[in-house]
Amino acid sequence: MLTQPSINTVETILDYTGHLTMSLFVGTLLITIGLVIGWSALEPVGYAFMIGQHFIRVYRLGLSPWLSVWFTVLVFLLLL
Hints:
Layout: H1 7-37, H2 42-61, H3 66-79
């Protein structure tokens, strides 16, 4: 028998998706600005900001810190 997801589950998924999008947006914006104007120092700052924002947002949502670990691993894999 299939059951409907609870309202809290759907709300948590929507919150996480929104926070993930904002973390990616701001970090990517800094990286892009660094690439466009030629400031190579902005690229690692953008990645650090992205990872830091993700950690803070996951903590505030009360989700598992392992989400931030996996997010960080994926970011570093994309850098290779």
